[in-house]
Specification:
Number of strands: 11
Structural class: alpha+beta
Largest sheet: 5 strands, antiparallel
Distance between the termini: 27 Å
CATH superfamily of one domain: Phosphorylase Kinase, domain 1
Shape: globular
Strand order of the largest sheet: 1-2-3-5-4
CATH architecture of one domain: 2-Layer Sandwich
Order of helices and strands: HHEEHEHEEHHHEEEEHHHEEH
Strand content: 15-25%
Helix content: 40-55%
CATH class of one domain: Alpha Beta
Length: about 375
Amino acid sequence: MLFFVRPLESILEITKCIVVFASQALQSGAFLYYLKIMKNENSRVNLQLIVFPEVSEIEKFITRSIGKKVQVTHINVLRHRDFSFVARVFIHPHFRSLVGFDTLIYKKVKAPWDCEANIALYVKNSGLPHTARLIEISKAPITAQFLQEDLGELSLMIRNSHKLALETGRRLAEIHLMAKSATAELPEKLERFDSAKSIVELAADCYYKLHEHFADFDRLLALQMVGCAVRDAQKLTEGDMCFQHGDVYAENIMLRQTSLAPTFIDWSYFCFVGPQLYDLATLTSAHSKNRALFKRRDAVIQGYCDVAQMPVEAVKEMLPAAFRFSRLMFLKWLLVRVDMGITQTTVGPVRPLIDRVVQEIIG
């Protein structure tokens, strides 16, 4: 990978450096000499899923957490991916009064997602509202295990209404307000994109990685992507910064079984400190993980602005830039996968996703 030779103190310096470098490279054709070219065999599936935990392993973890012997009848797998495994655990009827729940949600992650242990503790210790109750965490050198309350199967992606959309916006604003006032120490190594410089440097890093891994990637297209980041960075960082969920879509908002209260789940690897409107931008986007909630985006925004005491029109004006930034963050994660030699995702090959995301960034 290529790095800047000296610290860059301003956005203009960063932009000038990239533009000059790219221009000279394109004219001379010498750029390829400096790039490490890695074959990206998208036709070969190389996605290695995390090892499937035995029921006995899950049972032992619950027993250690409760402090008394607990028996599990069975599990339903909710997610099984390369870095994470999530299941609904059914407690034997004889042990339910001891545990206090009929079912629990069990999650296991491996590096680099093992950082989620510290993130989950931060969410708990900060008292962030409208989140699932964390019961236990266990962290090993390269893995982590979690137990949390089971909120049921109904998400905002499946069921929504004007009332639910309005309440979801309010609750997201309450989470952000609490995060801004929280005194709990932020997780170690939590990423920060809370300055214009850090956002532009992220785009520059993606620019170099695109050409490090994909020699055929259109360099002018990549340069346009950096230009969009330069344009948006200053605007995004004029407002408040706070801890962000980083993956707020309707599918990650569960409706409690009795009250239907929107509850935010899956505080994960994607959490970071950055522009306050980031989460709102993803939640009100036309992304497939929001489904029909997109039709009620105005209600979500209204609810958020009511609590955050922000003008609706000003927020709506900022959301496109915040959503482009969310796509840049997703591009970063795709390139991290390529760095690890992973050319697949659970929804298909990495390269087509990268092409699509870059197009989304530049519009």
